[in-house]
Amino acid sequence: MWEWNRPVTVREVLEDLQQERSIAYTTVMTVLDNLHQKGWVRREAEGRAYRYEAVSTRAAYAAALMNEAWSQSDNPAAALVAFFGMMSAEQRETLRDALRIVQGPQTPAAQNTAGENPAAAEAETGR
């Protein structure tokens, strides 16, 4: 559904899925109805059919999955270190960019003499 970036019908989803495998219309309809009942998609009647649309973005869904996995850890810091260790250099740079966006502009008083955010330095050293 995210790929369309618009509300879609069961028929559209069916035709897309049938490019890769054989699947019944009723199967797609049942899955979309289940997703609607669970709150993952919303639907709007259009004639005798419904148009379905994802409730959240793909990015928000991925973030929720990561947050859920991280919150299940008995040692969140170790989980993050292991996760970061799995990242490529490009992924780590993307992470740094995301942190800069979340943290917003830094004032001189909020930086230490090395030019780092004290809270970030504290998190890195564990102090």
From TrEMBL:
Under Pfam families, the record lists: Penicillinase_R
Q: Where is the composition biased (Polar residues)?
A: 104-115
Which GO terms label this protein's molecular function in UniProt? Answer: DNA binding
Q: Which Gene3D superfamilies match?
A: 6.10.140.850, Winged helix-like DNA-binding domain superfamily/Winged helix DNA-binding domain
- Reply yes or no: does the keyword DNA-binding apply: yes
Q: Where is this region: Disordered?
A: 103-127
Organism superkingdom: Bacteria
Q: Which GO terms describe its biological process?
A: negative regulation of DNA-templated transcription
Q: What keywords were assigned to this record? A: DNA-binding, Transcription, Transcription regulation
Q: Which family does it belong to?
A: Belongs to the BlaI transcriptional regulatory family.
What's the protein name?
A: BlaI/MecI/CopY family transcriptional regulator
Q: Which organism is it from?
A: Streptomyces aurantiacus
Lineage here is: Bacteria, Bacillati, Actinomycetota, Actinomycetes, Kitasatosporales
